[in-house]
Structure formats: C-alpha cells, structure tokens
Amino acid sequence: MIRAGLGAGLSLAQLKIMQEAMALFVFVPFALFYMNEPLKLGYFWAAVWLVGAVYFIFQGARPL
Question: What global pTM score does this model have?
Fold first, then answer.
C-alpha cells in the first residue's frame, strides 16, 4: 500500500519538512494562548529556519 504523501510524488525529506512546519504552525499559538508562554525570540528563529528549509527542499520540485 502506498502512502498518500509518497504516492503524490513527494520525497521523504519533503514530507518531514512539511510535518515540522505544520507542527510549529500549531505549537506556537498553542504555547502562546493556551499555555500562556511568553513570546520568545526562538520561535521567530525557528520559523525563519523552517521557511528556509521549505524553500530549499521544494526548490526544483515538480508541481503536483
């Protein structure tokens, strides 16, 4: 059985980067609003590095 992501033509690296980006997208608002954590500079840098990772991992990828 082929998994949905691999069957759609995405590589394992692309799937992993997408997973990390979605996790950060969910975790940061959860930490800020539900757990009342202060906004930290580390959240910003994590987002910057993930945006860079998304750019480089999908650069030259064929369109779905």
Answer: 0.69
**DSSP-derived secondary structure letter, 2:** -
CA angle 6, 9, 11 (to 5 degrees): 65
Specify if 64 maps to a domain: no
Structure tokens belonging to residue 36: 């009342």
The answer to whether residues 8 and 64 touch, using CB atoms and an 8 Å cutoff, is yes
Q: How many structural domains comprise the chain?
A: 1
Domain-embedded: residue 63: no
Within-domain flag for 42: yes
The pLDDT tens digits of the residues spanning 8-21 come to 778 888 888 889 88
